Amino acid sequence: MDDMYNDVNNDGVLWPQDAAVGEAFYSPCGTLGPRIQRYLQLVMLHTGSMTVWIDDVPRHAEQDTVCILFPGHREYFTFDTECETHHSWLHASIPHVPEAMLTRFQQLAWPLHLSSSMAQLTRDALDTRAVMLSTTPMLIKALAVQMLWRYLGEGEQHNETAQGHPLVEHACHYIYMHLQEPLTLEQVAQYVSVSPSYLMRLFREQVHISPIAYLWQRRVARGIELLEQTGLPVGVIAQQCGFQTSYHFSRRIHLATGCGPSEVRRRAWQR
HSE (CB half, 13 Å, CA atoms) of 211? Predict the structure, then answer.
């Protein structure tokens, strides 16, 4: 099977010959290296911070970020001087990454925000590593492919919106992470340390809707995702997405799709 995927790797499939995941905890002032990077590597930083010298050029990353490292470069890491640094990593051995793909990776911001989706893929990969199945190596390779493509996609999306105000990005992320809670404009504004009126103006300029309208958009989108991808009862989905009643959830779904939750699920499952 590896030979089959290597044959099509020139088309950008990024299927690795080998892939591994792991995690490490470094005490304050910890170091790693120097070493020569052998893999295409993603580093997910969960707590603490790190500075990595790549061919003697320093680059810094804080917690809740993810960064990419390329094979063939000399690296030396120093970790946070005041607290423990927890990071996880993905090693992907891909001997012949298409030049166009490398260019796309190299053009991304460094580091990127560690999204909830990337963090979940990382947890899935770490959990899979602990399962002794005959297919475990292939499962880890498949997750590696997903992580690399997500890193690329999220990075390119970040580049497209880089001209936007960073407060809006932080507010959107906060909203997404708290969909289940009864959020108010004041809470979101307090999180990003601005007044509600200023946050409202930023959203209308850049997102073209208010923060609360954006919140309801994300709740509806998450609800549709759960309807299509899970068998959870409608009432449970409504609660997980921040709706106080199933009726309100159903009404919002109907406004967005033209049909009720059960029909949304039926259509998705019959595709």
Answer: 29
Is residue 69 classed as helix, strand or coil in its secondary structure? strand
Give domain 2-160's CATH number out of 2.30.30.140, 1.10.1740.10, 2.60.120.280, 2.40.50.840.
2.60.120.280
DSSP code for 270: T
Q: Identify any residues that bridge with 20 across adjacent strands, giving them in sequence order.
A: 91
CB-count exposure of residue 194 (10 Å: 0-12, 13-18, 19+): middle
Count Cα neighbours of 208 within 13 Å in the Cβ-side half-sphere: 0
Give yes or no for residue 34 having a pLDDT over 80.
yes
Distance, CA of 93 to CA of 103 (rounded, Å): 18
Residue 96 sits at φ, ψ, to 5 deg, of -130, 75
Among candidates 131, 222, 209, which has minimal Cα distance to 171? 209
| Six-digit token string for 254 | 């109907």
Task: Give the CA radius of gyration of the chain.
Answer: 21
pTM (2 d.p.):
0.60
Interval 193-217 mean pLDDT? 91
Beta bridge partners of 43: 67, 89
CB atoms within 10 A of CB 226: 19
Supply the pLDDT for residue 164. 59
Of the candidates 256, 251, 20, the one whose C-alpha atom is nearest the C-alpha of residue 144 is 20
Q: What is the pLDDT of residues 45-93, one digit of tens each?
A: 999 999 999 999 999 998 889 999 999 999 999 999 999 999 999 999 9
Q: pLDDT tens digits, residue range 10-23?
A: 444 678 999 999 99
Q: Coil, helix or strand for 91?
A: strand
User: What pLDDT score was predicted for residue 2?
Assistant: 41
CATH assignment, 166-269: 1.10.10.60
